[in-house]
Amino acid sequence: MTVINKIQEFIDSKNISKYKFMKDTGVAQRTAYDLCNNPIQLPSPDVLRNICNTYQIQPGEILEWLPPDEFKLRFGNLEIEE
After folding, report:
1. I need a surface site. Which of 1, 3, 27, 82 has the fewest CB within 10 A?
2. For 3-75, which CATH class?
3. Region 35-55: what's the mean pLDDT?
């Protein structure tokens, strides 16, 4: 699937640290840091719900679909999960 997370972009735009993001959302430390540092890791439905509820946002603010060609340009030969 060519969906990426834009969580690092989102927290940067709101001046939120990774630590504050983790504390605000109740997401496990490892999960929070992995999501921030790895845009191809997608949040589970529960984590996505926690993030959206905490910051009162729509999922589209932190998830983005990319055409396969653009995904390959940005992320190289990483596996695209179908």
Report:
1. 82
2. mainly alpha
3. 96
Residue-wise DSSP of 1-58: --EEE-HHHHHHHTT--HHHHHHHHT--HHHHHHHHH-TTPPPPHHHHHHHHHHHT--
The owner of tokens 């840091």 is: 33
d(CA 36, CA 73): 20
Q: Write down the residue that tokens 């719900």 correspond to.
A: 49
Q: How far apart are CA 71 and CA 2, in angstroms?
A: 6
Residue burial 31-57, b: 16+ Cβ < 10 Å; e: rest: ebeebbeebbebbeeebbebbbeebee
Q: Do the beta carbons of residue 82 and residue 3 sit within 8 Å?
A: no
